[in-house]
Each structure stands twice: as structure tokens, then as C-alpha cells.
């Protein structure tokens, strides 16, 4: 599944899965923008739509049809919206679609960059442009979301339930290697390992030990360790002191929502679910969910999906196009064309149109210079 490095036009096949709620609105916007970027670049994007969603589940009893994962494996990448509907329990929708893709396709590294875009504002009083520029690496295959657990004596007063966290040396070591490599590629070469080894004295202690062992292979990366509770305080009080952050599946899930809010809105944050071995397609999605409260109103912020699309292009080897899309998105924020979550009045379509125009303007400028 690795991108072709040959010269000449390349074609990337994208599985497009909008899912539920605003997922359908932001993915449609993302595809529009990606088509505009591809027109300018020397590559082609082929999209295939998959209507796997809570609607499909309610009709067929399944989120993913038989053989569905093999279908997905034929693509170079997956662009995903969100899953979740008011009339389907969240654990059914999450495990039926998103986790049912991430886990078998071994997308074990979840990458969540966050920064404050030009023209937007952090809710933090003293957070200037550039003070908050982080990448959160989330272990995406096991930990607290390993799926191990059960319920006995359901509904009875002595009912018992377990939710077991799994930490395997194999998975912990590979996520640390990935995190150290990510930190090493960033200018500050600074990695913060988030843990909870004071209270969780088995899995989290091994987590710390593996971090220390892997650190020896990356002498140029400065590493520090934070308990997850203290980490929330540091993110708020000293955003500039952080750069790359690695945490377990649950811890990073929570910290990355906080990160997005500190950067201005959950509507701008992207996620990549990567199989770093490139044996399976990776999946790209905005961090946010299906947002029932604003679905169908045309006001969802598409910026998180545009940044996601940019990350997808980068993974596919289209680095220039990825940067063009990210820069154009930031231009539009800088012009004050913002949706309601960022304090503006623009609709999803207005932001989308503005980003397409900004892509074209930047491309024309670089042609004539
Ligand atoms: N990856 C996923 O598919 C994923 C992630 C999170 C939640 N969910 C699901 O989504 C459903 C709703 O969950 P939730 O309400 O906890 O989280 P959510 O992210 O959908 O919404 C949280 C709040 O943020 C706002 N918001 C989110 N995205 C926005 C955007 N692009 N533009 C403007 N505002 C935005 C919403 O309006 C809402 O007020 C649930 O079913 C949940 O399980 C799915």
C-alpha cells in the first residue's frame, strides 16, 4: 500500500466513508477540496463511497458487510467522517464500525496534531501564535480499549463487570518507537510520556520501563514523564513546554479533546489512524463525532476534515499538495471566514468554497513566481 515513488501522475484510491451526522457533511466538503487540490497536483485521486453507517446498521444489522474489510484493503487510504446515532448505543456504533476497522487493519498509531491557526484564538489567556503546537500519539490497538471484559449476573444486585486494560510489550514498544521517531523529526526533539504508574502498578509500570528502554535508542530526543492528571494542568498552564506527547489509548483520547479545545475548537482537529508498516491502508478522520446537535444544519466546521485530508495526502507521499491544502485552510481562517464554533458566522459550504479559492490563489501565485 505504499505510494508509488515513480515519476509521472500517480493515482491514489480512497475509500470514502462519511458515516453519521455531520460526518456526511464534512466528508463531502473534504472530497470537494481534495478534488480541487488534485487538479493542481500531478496526481489523481479516485474515490469510492461506502455507506457504512448507523442507518445501514439499522437496516441490515451490520455496520460492515461480509467481506467489507477485504474491500477496504484494496484502497490506499480511508477517509472517514464519524459514527454515532442517537438511537444506537455508542458502544455498538464505535465497536461496530470505527474500532472494527482500526484493530484488524493494525492501525496502531493514532496521530493527533494540534495548533492554533492564524485568525483563530485559544481560550487560554496567554497563548500566543506558535505557543501551542503539539502532536499527540495515541496507542490505538489495545490498552483500555482492548475489548477484554464482560458482565456476569446481568441486572441482578450482585452483577459484576470487568473492563480489562491490556498492555503487551510488543504493542507498547512499537508505539514508543513510533513516538520517538515522530519527536525526532520535529525541530524541538522533545517527547513527553504520559503515564499513571503511581496508581496503576502493573501495565503502567511496564509502560514506563519500555519507554525508558526505547529512549536509549534515541539519545537526541529529550524525554520527560508526566502523570496524566498533572498533564492536564501542564497543557493548560504551560502549553509552550510541550511538543510531542505519547499516551495510552484512553489517556490520549481524553487529552486530545482537551488539546483541540485549547487550540480553539474540536472542529479543527485531525486524526490519522496509521499502520506504519503500510501493509494495510491507514484511516484519516476528524477527531470530532457525529454531533447530533448541529447535524443537518450546514454549520459544521470542515477545517478538521481539511487538516485530516492534508495529513492523508502527506501519508500518500503528496507532501507539496498536503502543505498547499493546510496553508490554504489557514489563509481562510486568517481571513476570518469561520464557522460558529470558532466565533464566526460562515456555513460549511462557505468555508469550503473559500478554501478551494485559496488553494487556487496559492497555486497561481507559485506558478507565476
Ligand atoms: N470517531 C468517531 O466516530 C467519534 C468520535 C467522538 C464521538 N463519536 C460519537 O458521536 C456522537 C456524538 O458525540 P459527542 O457529542 O460526545 O461528541 P461530538 O464531537 O460529536 O460533539 C461534541 C460537541 O462539539 C461540537 N462539534 C463537534 N464537531 C464539530 C464541528 N466540526 N463543528 C462545530 N462543532 C462541532 C458539537 O456540536 C458538540 O456540541 C456519539 O454517538 C459518539 O459516540 C464518534
From TrEMBL:
Pfam families: Iso_dh. InterPro entries: ICDH/IPMDH, IsoCit/isopropylmalate_DH_CS, IsoPropMal-DH-like_dom, TTC_DH. Belongs to the isocitrate and isopropylmalate dehydrogenases family. The keyword NAD applies. The keyword Metal-binding applies. SMART domains: Iso_dh. This is D-malate dehydrogenase (decarboxylating). GO terms for molecular function: D-malate dehydrogenase (decarboxylating) (NAD+) activity; magnesium ion binding; NAD binding. Keywords: Magnesium, Manganese, Metal-binding, NAD, Oxidoreductase. Its cofactor is Mn(2+); Mg(2+). Its EC number is 1.1.1.83. It catalyses: (R)-malate + NAD(+) = pyruvate + CO2 + NADH. PANTHER family: D-MALATE DEHYDROGENASE [DECARBOXYLATING]. Transmembrane segments: none annotated. Residues 13-355 form the Isopropylmalate dehydrogenase-like domain. Gene3D superfamilies: Isopropylmalate Dehydrogenase (3.40.718.10).
